[in-house]
Write the structure tokens for this entry.
Amino acid sequence: MVKVMWVSVIAFAAAILLVTVAKIPVAEGVNCSPTELTPCAGAMMSSSPPSATCCAKLREQTPCFCGYMRNPSLRPYVSSPNAKKVATSCKIASPSC
């Protein structure tokens, strides 16, 4: 009887643990590489609208924008009027760094 009770307690604890773990969001790593924004080059260099691929890459790289802004080599590209226009077209907010 005691053995059956312990098995039930362990099974219940395992079920609670599985439910709790299932609700924990898994953070995906972002590869902060400006080359990931290559699909946006055409839109940033001209007045053409950004492609869906460009917008997807911008969304993916959003956590990296502040790092790009701190880099003197990248800042002119990230903060250019065309870059802001592309971000606005993709409905991506400007970073607050």
